[in-house]
Specification:
With 228 residues, the chain is an alpha/beta fold. The chain contains eleven helices and seven strands.
Amino acid sequence: MARDIFVSYSQPDRDCAYDLTEHLEARGFTVWIAPRDVSPAAEWAAEIIDAISAAQIMILVFSASSNTSPQVRREVERAVSKDLRILPFRLENVLPSRSLEYFLSSQHWLDGFPSPREPHYERLCGFLHQWLPATSEQPAQPLQSVPVGARAVLAAGRADGASTGGARVSAGELRELEVRLARILGPIATVLVDRAAAAARDFSDLERRLAAELDSPEDQRRFLKARH
C-alpha cells in the first residue's frame, strides 16, 4: 500500500519515531514505519524496498545512533536511488558521518530539539503540507526553514560571540555567515558554521573554511560575493 511518508530510524530512537508517526497521522498524512507496517511472514528487506519505492518522501529521524546505523544508511541509499526526497529530522546536534554526508549535504534539515518536541513536529508538518498539498484536509502551513544564526549561537552558549583560535567572532558575524551559507546549502549551514567556528582563527579564516565546504566554484563565488 502506497503511503505519503516513509520514516527511517534506528532502534534507540524508536519511541520518538513512533511519536512522530502518531503526530503526522493525526494531521492526515499516511505513514509507513517498521515494524508496524511489515506484513506478517513477509521478507523484511523486500517490504522496506517496496515501501520506499511507493513513498513520496522519507523522514530520517537523525541522531548519533542513526548516524552509524548500517540499516539507516541502506534505506537512505535506496531513497536516493529512487529520487525520493529526504527530510532529516535531527534529534541532537550531530554532523552526518562520511557515509551519509554525501547523500544528505544538500537536503533541507529540521531540528527536533530542544524539548518539547511538539513545536518541532508542527514545523515539520508545515513543510509536508507544502510538499504533499493534497494529502490532508488541514490548511497548508507557510514554508519555513530551520532558524539560522540566533538559535545556533544561543544553543552553543555564544550569545556574545564565539572564541575562535584566540580571536572573537561576534554573534552578528556568525549569523551573517549562517544566512549566506543557508541560501546555498539549507539548514545544515548552522551545523557547518558551528564546526568551522571551533577551529577558525578569525572571521576571514572562518569565511574561507565555509567556502571550502561548497563543492562548486560557482557556489563558492556566490557565498563570498554575498559579503555585507
